[in-house]
Specification:
Elements: E1 4-9, H1 13-18, H2 25-37, E2 43-49, H3 56-68, E3 73-78, H4 86-89, H5 97-112, E4 117-120, E5 123-125, H6 132-138, E6 151-154, E7 157-161, H7 165-174, E8 179-184, H8 187-198, E9 205-206, H9 207-214, H10 219-230, E10 234-237, E11 240-243, H11 245-249, H12 251-262
Parallel strand pairs: 1-2, 2-3
Antiparallel strand pairs: 3-5, 4-5, 6-7, 7-8, 9-11, 10-11
Length: 263
């Protein structure tokens, strides 16, 4: 094991209490120091923006505090209050869409100006520290999981083991069925995943790569991307199409239209 991720979420203790988190920021600082002392050289921190009564200045202070801890990787997520949660009852105090968008764009500028490169909608890394685990999913790489509840995607088959420990052990011992899911993924679903997941990352998607993999015309998708290129939401660089930070803000819209064109 060479990497640990900590759910710090905020440098503001009041916000942590609002989120129902049992730790303080001082404890998060102590945890990072302890990991460094223990020889861990690859640390990722999770942060949340768009918290109740949070403005751009307060969010910037959170980013600065996280940067002071000098992690190799940062994940920054916009808060989405789900119905039925305590925060949903306080949704009137949450920053609006425009305020959240400002915080997002500030995150990109602030971190990239200090050495953390954005490589996915919500993820930033020092050189060589992007999450290989997550990139497996986003680039349609194969992966194998082991043990109860583990998921795998190998040889165009996506499968999962049962979550129940006793059932899993019994199945292994008696050569019974230990799968809870088992599905062969047709190529016409992989092309959708290529577009949907590829536009989440700054590496983007390529016409040449798409047509080689799926033997389908990329033209309809490219027509959508060219429209958003004119508005500054998409760029073509080195033969690859990818979203700009402004494009990531409306990624669901862009990806939705690209998939409609593909269909």
């Amino acid at each position: 094991m060479n990497r640990l991720s900590l759910g710090v979420q905020s440098a503001d203790d009041r916000m942590l209490r609002l989120l129902g988190r049992p730790h303080s920021f001082a404890q998060a600082e102590g945890a990072v120091a302890g990991l460094r002392q223990g020889g861990i050289e690859n640390i990722s921190l999770d942060l949340i923006y768009g918290l109740p009564d949070q403005d751009l200045s307060r969010w910037r202070k959170n980013l600065a505090a996280a940067v002071e801890l000098n992690p190799e990787h940062l994940s920054c997520y916009g808060l989405k209050a789900e119905p039925g949660t305590p925060l949903y009852a306080r949704r009137d105090a949450l920053p609006g869409d425009e305020a959240q968008a400002e915080m997002y764009l500030e995150t990109v500028d602030f971190l990239e100006g200090r050495g953390w490169r954005q490589y996915e909608i919500s993820n930033f890394a020092r050189e060589g520290s992007a999450s290989r685990h997550n990139l497996k999913y986003w680039t349609l790489g194969e992966y194998a999981g082991f043990g109860p509840g583990a998921h795998s995607d190998l040889g165009d088959v996506r499968y999962a083991y049962v979550k129940d420990l006793a059932a899993y052990c019994s199945g292994v011992e008696h050569q019974g069925d230990i799968l809870s899911e088992n599905e062969r993924i047709p190529i016409r679903e992989r092309d959708v995943e290529y577009i949907m997941l590829g536009l989440r990352i700054t590496r983007g998607i390529s016409r040449q790569e798409f047509e080689y993999k799926f033997r389908l015309p990329f033209g309809p998708v490219q027509a959508v991307l060219e429209r958003f290129e004119k508005s500054g939401h998409v760029v073509l660089r080195g033969g690859r199409w990818h979203l700009t930070p402004e494009g990531f803000l409306i990624s669901n819209c862009i990806i939705g239209q690209a998939l409609e064109a593909l269909a």
